[in-house]
Amino acid sequence: MDFHYETQPVPNPVAYYLHHSPWWFHRFETLSNHFIELLVPFFLFLGRRACIIHGVLQILFQAVLIISGNLSFLNWLTMVPSLACFDDATLGFLFPSGPGSLKDRVLQMQRDIRGARPKPRFGSVVRRAANVSLGVLLAWLSVPVVLNLLSSRQVMNTHFNSLHIVNTYGAFGSITKERAEVILQGTASSNASAPDTVWEDYEFKCKPGDPSRRPCLISPYHYRLDWLMWFAAFQTYEHNDWIIHLAGKLLASDAEALSLLAHNPFAGRPPPRWVRGEHYRYKFSRPGGRHAAEGKWWVRKRIGAYFPPLSLEELRPYFRDRGWPLPGPL
């Protein structure tokens, strides 16, 4: 939690302030996370009141995650199963009451059948036996999953048998301690290596770029390209050749590619002659500090080149080798 808010895929404005919370608050977050994810789910088996508490805690937990970052629709969907924890009596205050109302008729039916226990039939016995058998089977198949969970070499998003009945799931196996960003730049200069070449930044719709731009707030919407750029920054362009494909689209001023961006520095002008990728390390500015006083949310430092300057002519064989359509006038 000391690093999560700063290094998550697409931070929002609240993440900026949560990142600067006291150390003890981050320890409390960690303890609460373990309690809600590892212990609270067992409340489902402890009766009606415990089940309601489970639903309340899980929904509040997901709400906190929604407020603290742009994690697309993941947390909104996670709330849905918890709604089943609230029975009619719990949700009754949401519906009008009175003689003849739907709520009144439902309550009357519940009073009529309360305490009634129908005699067990053969079908119900078979169904119960099948449920118990399935539960035992799942428990047995889950043994390697639990061992993997407790292992220091935990494997994320995998299966442990050919039927794929039990699996491991997870968005992130670990939290990075530093944030890297790939900044795409273009120039109209004919000489990309000249020291006086002016490079202009492309801005994405949500991912960090201009240090002075406020972090976005888009949940539950999802900007997939911004998300992929976050992953690409941890690797090289050789592992993410799609980013070279994007560079070719920018060199050709492709309208569909540019629609995915917030700012095209060459709008209303001829397309750039060269496009390059620069690698930066980003950190949140310190509230009250020099950079924050200048209106900057981020402080960035150049790491080096992510990919070298590329022109349309140079990308011709690269595109053809991969069977990609040649953008623009190639």
Automatic annotation (TrEMBL):
Primary residence: endoplasmic reticulum
Pfam family, one: LMF1
Ranges of residues in domain Lipase maturation factor 1/2 N-terminal: 1-91
Localization (cell): Endoplasmic reticulum membrane
Keyword Ribosomal protein annotated: no
GO cellular component term, pick one: endoplasmic reticulum membrane
Transmembrane intervals: 31-47, 59-77, 129-150
Lipase maturation factor 1/2 C-terminal domain mapped to chain residues: 165-308
Keywords linked to the UniProt accession: Endoplasmic reticulum, Membrane, Transmembrane, Transmembrane helix
Bilayer topology term: Multi-pass membrane protein
Biological process per Gene Ontology, one example term: protein maturation
Parts forming coiled coils: none
Reported function: Involved in the maturation of specific proteins in the endoplasmic reticulum.
Family statement: Belongs to the lipase maturation factor family.
Protein name: Lipase maturation factor
Primary gene name: LMF1
